[in-house]
Amino acid sequence: MTSAHDHADENAEPVADDVHENSWSANLELPEHADDRDLLVEEAITAVERTASGYHVNLVTHEAHGHPSDSLYDELEAAFEDVEYEHVDQCGCGGHVVRVQV
Does residue 8 lie in a domain region? Predict the structure, then answer.
């Protein structure tokens, strides 16, 4: 698997550089995420990988990808065996929040 740093969009800022030893939110609703589902998935996986055990990350996704059950759940299940996730809410802007407990 390639990391978000290896992705074709070299101008995209990484969603996380360090491991978060607290609960946090990953902003995956920028214009580059709207245009690139692979980037959305890669950075969502990176965000979960960089969340310490016992904490959660809120993945805030762009409205362009619809409900996360259509665009993200399968990839989370394939990448991780030991995380739980749930759809928290749809944002007023149309995006969605998925809480992933590590």
Answer: no
Which residues in the chain land under pLDDT 50?
1-13
- Domain span at residue 81 reads 22-101
* DSSP H stretches of helix in 1-102: 31-34, 37-49, 68-71, 73-79
Residue 10 lies inside a defined structural domain of this protein: no
What pLDDT score was predicted for residue 8?
40
71 part of a folded domain: yes
Burial code (b: 16+ CB inside 10 Å, e: under 16) for 27-65 equals bbbbebbbebbebbbbbbbbbbebbeeeebbbbbbbebb
Whether 64 and 21 have beta carbons less than 8 Å apart is answered as no
The predicted structure's pLDDT at residue 4 = 39
Residue 7 is assigned to a structural domain of this protein: no
3-state secondary structure of 43: helix
Distance CA(38)–CA(18), nearest Å, equals 21
